[in-house]
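FW: tagging you since you asked about this chain on Friday. Here's the raw sequence from the shared folder, copied in full. Didn't touch anything.
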Amino acid sequence: MKVNVKWGKEVFSDVDLDTTQPPMVFKSQLFTLSGVPPDRQKVLIKGGQLKDDEWGKQQPKDGMTIMMMGSADEIKVEAPTNAPKFVEDLPEEEQNTLETKAYGSGLKNLGNTCYMNSTLQCLYSAEGLKQALQTYQASALSEPNAKLAQAARELFAELQRGGEPLSPFKFLLTMRQRFPQFAQQTNEGLYMQQDAEECWTQVMYALKEQLKDADGKSAVDRLFGLKLHTKLKCEETGEEFEEDSTVYTLKCNISVDVNYLHQGVALALVEDREKNSAQVCRGGSRSGSCSSNSSRSLL
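HL: got it, structure written out here
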């Protein structure tokens, strides 16, 4: 049935009422409409006060008007703690760099440091490495590799905030202290250009020693490590040599016969090496190939 409820100067029309349900259900409806908690409600039907658990003699009829008395809880209106920010309200410098937050800030060239910048930007794109650096806690910052890992951690945190391009001075100085070859200068006192692959390799081996998963294994091996099995054969004596290794680069050799990426990778896995022979007691040329059964999502 439907009834009308008069509360002070307000009237709630066509309120559903089911007498097969306890009166508390009806009072809960009134609380929703008026804000008066059930324990403060005084509901009068035909002059009698309605109880919480039974209708008793107060049997309502369809379309009748029921009286309710009681004070509602004060509704507190608070300003939102996280108010929305609109682009036009941001400072102009933030508006200009807003899109960089999706992929991180850029890195300024500090004088022939494009090899380092490209290495860092490549590493920054690996989400797993960023997570490993976020949780990294150096046990001893006096250790050179720990200093480099800490510098990478701080730099990646700055990149993630977005904004204007950053000057990676701290990482550069720490890297040059750890690997002095990157501090080589010309006769004019200018820092020399360096090889990006060499920078990648050195940084990767340094991070490998510092970044560990919960099981104590290297996070760098898990993310980037490729397990290679090398098999070589001496052309002169027929001796065979096999070894297993972990590398962090997959090379692609380019020649006139290479038209596709997989051809260049396969060519790079063919190896010639000079190695001493136990049978002839001198160095001998060995040739062979490397194979890998590893697969990494970062490839």
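FW: The first strand starts at residue 2 and ends at 7.
HL: agreed, and Strands lie at 2-7, 10-16, 42-45, 48-49, 65-69, 226-234, 240-247, 270-277, 282-292.
FW: great, closing this out.
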